[in-house]
Amino acid sequence: MHPDLFSIGFLHVKTYGCCMALGFFAAWQVLAYLCRRIGRPFEPLGNLVVSLMIAGVLGSRIAYVIEHWKAEFADRLVDIIRIDQGGLMFYGGFILAVAVFVFWCIWKRDNPLALGDLLSVVIPLGHAFGRIGCFFYGCCYGKLSSSCVAVAFPRGSPAWYEQLNAGKIASSAMQSLPVLPTQLFEAAANLALFAALFFFFRRFRRGTMALYLIGYAIIRFGMEYLRGDPRAAVGPFSISQTISLALLFAGLTLLAVMWRGKRQASVP
User: Fold this and answer.
1) In the chain, what is the straight-line distance between the N-terminal and C-terminal CA atoms, in Å?
2) pLDDT beyond 70 at 225
3) In a domain, 220, yes or no
4) Residue 199 domain-assigned?
5) How far apart are the C-alpha atoms of 80 and 238, rounded to whole Å?
């Protein structure tokens, strides 16, 4: 855990914010490369990419605040705007970004499937950097574990506070009990998903968005069983698992529609 990257006088640069910036930069560069490869001008997409980034951060923060209102924000309203300290819920940003994306496609009369295939390639890349930022901040941690990969976060971390409030450690403890580094697990899974989508798009292009929806839905659904931080529930599942099931259904439906359309087109 290393929440502060460096400080110069009154300027405190947060590691979480730097990881987000690196993720946006990496996604931007790969997207520009793919546009050149397929012969699509990247410049007109610049405003869309920036809008999606803003929507992603705003939606992620709103969703996180709603989910953790009583525990973190009810008595500290000023902390709502402190996104530099972590605290983003990916699916909240994803949903708001999708709304912005749909509006853009209607406004610009762009093909949502073709554009969605292109953008879906870089989403897990940016997301991976965000999860690394989560690890440095200490949020989104996993369950208690005695495995060789478990990590103990220092005093004052989210895991430390949660275990203190649960009576699992004393207030004099200098670190939390070991927990699974689910942030790094998900970062690695997102990087693997990005690599698969990148090479798939370079060869086939069509269907990348559906594969992203299916791939990340499976990753996130399983990862939720390893998470140890407080999770709001919807029946037997967490909110993120419920959304994952919806995305999985959407991805499979999209694949089925594409497959059916391809079969019909091949019929003489």
Assistant:
1) 61
2) yes
3) yes
4) yes
5) 22
